[in-house]
Amino acid sequence: MNAEKRGLCLHLPLRLLRFNALGLSARVRVLLLLILLLAAGLRFYRLDAQSFWNDEGNAVRAAERPIPLVIAAARGDIHPPGYYLLLHFWRIPTGDSEFAVRALSVYIGLLAVALTGRLGRRMFGAEVGLVAALLAALSPLAVYYSQEARMYGLLGLIAVASTDLLWSFLSRPRLRAGVLYALVAAAGLYTHYSFPFVLLAHNLLVLGWWLWPHLSPISLPSSDLRSGEGKGWRRSRRGWGEALQWLALQASIVLLYLPWLPTALRATGWPSAGRNYTLGAALLDIFRALAVGITLEADQIRPVLYSVGVLLALGLWPLTGALAMVGARCRTSASPTPPVEGPAFGENTPEVWPFSGGQFENIQRSPPAGRKEQKVNIFRAAEPAGGPCSRATDQKAKVEGRGEGSPNTLSALFAAATLALWLLVPLVLIFAFDLYKPAYLKFLLAVLPAFHILLAAGIHNLARAFQSFRLSTLYTLAFYALTLYFLTAQAFLPSLRNLYFNPAYARDNYRGIAADIASAARPGDAILLNAPNQWEVFTYYYKGDLPIYPFIYHPRPEDVGPWLEPILASHQRLFVLYWGDLEADPQRWLENLLADRAYPGPARWYGRVRLALYGVAETPDLADPRVVRPENVQIGPVRLRGYVWGRGPFQPGEVVPVTLFWETEAPLPERHKVFVHLMESGGNLVAQHDSEPRGDLSPTTFWPVGTVVADRHGIFLPPGLPPGTYELRAGLYRLTDGTRLPVIVGGAPAGDFVVLGEVEVK
User: Average pLDDT of 145-163?
Assistant: First the structure.
């Protein structure tokens, strides 16, 4: 990637992030800018240090096609075309290097940080908004997917943007807000098939918003209400009109999505997780991913998870109290006698809730009998500071010293309800549709902003408790600092360190695979891909001349032999990339046939991709006259019935074929590995192949009694191996502790290995 394009990628956020457009007050812009710079630093750091993995490669190669082919590719994929189209236009000015392609996800992540702060500010005030933005900036899960060229960061951005627009529409139902909401929601449907989970949460919220005046025992002072007549807002003409407006919005979203709807209905979706989990462990895994990301294990940070759970509960405190009051209203509604009003619930008596930070100082019971029931637009108070319906609230906040834009009673209550629905509805549906497994934790990006805002609200509510004890603002700020330091030092930084540097959490290294194959390639070699969709990412990196054979997706057993035999007849060595076995080749037909028709050699893992080298040679059976049949050779409980090997001469880089024929007369209770070693005259090991029989496909505990097992091994001769004659040895050892099994020949002990013969290297 040249310097000009890299500069364009790095300076683009300053052009895109217009703080005035985010509705933020002037005094928080500097803090938000610092948070965004921190977020940008974490996301740009080592952005191209890791290789594209399989799905990233698919996205890049799909986006480089003409638009009709991009859409055609998405029709055969399990994801809609929105992100691919966006990436298609992004790469035109920036190029398709790893840095440039992933930079799109970085900017999406920065916008998500800014909108998370904006929505948190609208819901709970400026302090919560800034803390929520900081949590989003530091979130290891958000950073992880901001460094990946996939649509999951865009899913999170659209989820928070649509929720923010929903609040705008409900606070002031205008055409512009409704149109923007419909467009963004439709974009979410074109981005990921899980976005309907967020839409369902929105619809449940609007249903509660519509029913609230009929169910709620809470009202506000008359200065905060809109006057109304009749039997209440729920049955008023305006109530039905707002419901019809919402239904029209949903209909417009469906109309915008209609061109893709038939494809979405035909999509097979994601493979089922199989329900092979316990609910408690699954919930802990989800909570761990939301709190500290997927690059830190829950056992390492249990105190952090407990603390985060408490803070989330405090963030939901307004909703908990409101539901309790609604329940009290429902329990007493059947009685014609008005409930007795105690000191805490009497008319004009302020109700103070713990940890509320002054948010619930004006909660009152419903008006006494005879007073006209008043109706309220409960989202009016959620408008940004300076809005026409927030002036009285802001003025009161300034007088009370609560800060600009502090939310009033119903705003905080419905903010908590919004976040609870947004967070819980998708999680419930993940389990309902059997979509929980570690590979699907990336779907949590859709609810991550809600998690951060709730966590920030909990921190804020607990910090305001210090003021209840008449502690100074300095103590409150110190609590904020210590809480954020604790989360950062104990959770965020260790998780980010693993993301950047720990190989255990690294993405699949196709860059390294391509480089290693290119350096070891010889005439007569070929490359096989067990999952055919590896072709896109592998060919992004591999520019060599070896032929590449993508295998059949979900093959039938009768198709494997005709596909493989011409390849075996044309090549001497095979590099085979195994990835996604359970999805591409669940029965492992290709690997089984290669274990019988070729010689498995060394294998190495590159993340979740295994690169195996096979030697191609004749594969004799036990009846072949070239097979050596030893007399009464027993290795532990296993009998060596025969063996055959390639004597050479071989050159360095070639694979020595070795076939061992085993038989057992009784079931074997333990698993054993077979070793085949090539030794120089001084007794030093120069090459080897260790594996369970048949390339790890036939553990000894599964051997049928009395049946001969043909076990083939390929010994790779390393480059630079000196010419000479080398001794070939074989034996067995326990898988558990590596202890070699004794060799008994004719009833007498004969060491712990069998000498098969000699191999010549020239």
Answer: 97
Q: What would the DSSP string read from start to end of 302-351?
A: HHHHHHHHHHHHHHTHHHHHHHHHHHHHHHHTT-SSPPP--TTTSTT---
What would the pLDDT profile of 677-697 be if each residue is shown by its tens digit?
999 988 899 999 999 999 999
* Interior angle at CA 284, CA 278 and CA 287, nearest 5: 140
The string of pLDDT tens digits covering residues 123-139 is 988 889 999 999 999 99
Q: What is the pairing mode between strands 685-691 and 672-679? A: antiparallel
Give the C-alpha separation, 59 to 534, whole Å: 12
DSSP assignment string, 649-717: -B-TT-EEEEEEEEEESS---S-EEEEEEEE-TTS-EEEEEEESHHHHTS-GGGPPTT--EEEEEEEE-
> Any residues with CB less than 8 A from the CB of 139 and at least 6 apart, and which?
293, 448, 452, 492
Report the pLDDT averaged over residues 108-133. 94
C-alpha distances in Å from residue 411, one per residue of 1, 114, 121, 244, 384: 48, 21, 11, 23, 12
Residue owning tokens 């305001």:
464
* CA 670 – CA 734 distance, rounded (Å): 7
Tell me the sheet residues that pair with 638. Answer: 635, 664
The beta strand positions in 424-547, using DSSP E, are 525-529
Cα–Cα distance measured from residue 67 to residue 662, given in angstroms and rounded to the nearest whole number = 57
For residue 171, what pLDDT is reported? Answer: 82
Task: Give the tens place of pLDDT for each residue, 218-246.
Answer: 543 333 333 333 333 333 444 677 788 89
Q: 148 with 50: CB under 8 angstroms?
A: no
**What local confidence, expressed as pLDDT, does residue 234 receive?**
37
Query: Can you give the length of the chain in residues?
Result: 762
Which residues is 688 bridged to in the sheet? 677
Token pair belonging to 230 = 């009749």
Q: Which two tokens stand for residue 506?
A: 């690294």
- The string of DSSP letters for 113-136 reads HHHHHHHHHHHH-HHHHHHHHHHH
Alpha helices for 17-149 (secondary structure H) = 26-44, 54-63, 67-75, 82-94, 98-124, 126-138, 140-146
- Whether the model clears a pTM of 0.85, i.e. scores above it, the answer is no
Looking at the predicted structure, is the pLDDT value of residue 198 above 80? yes
Answer whether 742's CB lies under 8 Å from 752's CB: yes
CB of 136 closer than 8 Å to CB of 117: yes
Contact call for residues 503 and 548 (beta carbons, < 8 A): no
In what helix (H) or strand (E) does residue 642 lie, and over which residues does it extend?
strand 638-645
The two structure tokens encoding residue 18: 């217009």
Cis peptide before 566 (omega within 30 of 0): no
User: pLDDT: is 236 or 651 the higher one?
Assistant: 651
3-state SS assignment for residue 630 = coil
